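Subject: sequence -> structure tokens, single chain

Hey, anyone have a minute? Need the predicted structure for the following. Not urgent.
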Amino acid sequence: MNKTLKRLLDLLTQANVSSIQAARVLGGSITPGTLVRPMEVTPEDPAFARAQIMPGAEAEPVYTVELTPGTPALHLDALSAAFGTGSPIPRARPGQPARLMFQHRPEGAAHFVTVFASHDEAGSVSLLLLRRDPIV
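Reply:
Had a minute. Here:
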């Protein structure tokens, strides 16, 4: 698994993580957002072309991180190797990319992370959505 993605996933499983903390893991250029507009990040790692963090207000607890893969391309094989077999997500409308869902559930963590990967037929990932879910 990519080091930046691993560090981000490890952070997102902790309690009390703010949007700015997630942005700092990605590094690079950060444009703050608001409660309703995402924080925009151009990550230092070329494996990711851009990121959007919601909510975008710096001190708010992070809920989602959307990552657009860069170079080299991210493939479903890498996600399957890291998280196991993904579960297909039904398409909500015609023309929508295929999606798989994975879960990152470390032992003893405060949160788990659900990973949604949009991909093409060849398995190239076009978008990753990381959603932080509390363990209850």
